[in-house]
Amino acid sequence: MRYFIVDDDKASRAMLKNIITECDLGVVIGEAKSGAECLSSILAVHPDVVLIDLLMPGLDGIEAIEQLRMKGFQGQFIMISQIVNKEMVGEAYEKGVEFFIHKPINRIEVRSILKRVAEQFQLRNSLLVIKESLGQSESATTRQQSVKEIVLSILNDMGIIGESGSDDIISMMEILIYENEGVIQLPPLKNLYESIAAKPGNHNLSSKAIEQRIRRIILTAVNNLASLGSIDYTNPVFEYYAPRYFDFQVVRDQMISIQEDHNEPKKAKVNIKKFLQALYHDTIEKYNDK
């Protein structure tokens, strides 16, 4: 991934650049200290992601984003903000900003967010390939890719696409939809774990190992949503997934932990069946609408 950093604080720019380099998240191809200064440079080098400060003298972050979009820039924006002003956050969302980084800058938060952005970037490329396949035939293989596309999109919303366990969850949804068409309630989870463990490539894994992978990825989803909710609890992704896929008290406890400790959230107890039941309901609903 290729990044461009815009921030009037030299120390913040240096810290972000160090995190990107040391965590092997990509390469910083440019930086600027103001919104006005960054415009021509960004349009010239076309970075994948622009990390831009919300409040800067002269042209602020939102105004700079608006001008770049008007000039045809298609890259992703991550807003850097020291304040949590709901109106300004809402305006940033309207301009296409999907992720925020708090100031003072936290290494763990930056690494987590940039990993999610990279996964989202990879998803877009994967979806393009899938759409091309969908346009070529209406075979059973194409239908299977359609289910995979739906699940990938949902996992991407929660920031867990590409995590260990994501393939297991996709396989579960394919088994439920293709082999148990019409089922309303999930079968015993143990049966699903054993079905996944029996798939080619998983012969060295026990059903217990499958369960642990799925538990870990669901915990990651809880933490991602809690981070999102701690920034803006009116975010539509948070509003939809937090109460639907999880016990909301667990999400709320994680939000409090993040806000108080400004660090990694504490370990939480997750309800695997609730998550998978909600995912299955959303997947089958979208699949049947196609």
Automatic annotation (TrEMBL):
**Does Phosphoprotein show up as a keyword for this record?**
yes
The answer to whether UniProt assigns keyword Transcription regulation to this entry is no
Cross-referenced Pfam families: Response_reg (PF00072), YcbB (PF08664)
Q: Give the signal peptide, or none.
A: none
Q: Which residues carry this modification: 4-aspartylphosphate?
A: 53
Which InterPro entries has this protein been placed in?
CheY-like_superfamily (IPR011006), Sig_transdc_resp-reg_receiver (IPR001789), ST_Response_Regulator (IPR052048), YcbB (IPR013972)
Q: Which UniProt keywords apply?
A: Phosphoprotein
Q: Where is the Response regulatory domain?
A: 2-118
Give one GO biological process term: phosphorelay signal transduction system
Q: What is the protein's given name?
A: Response regulator
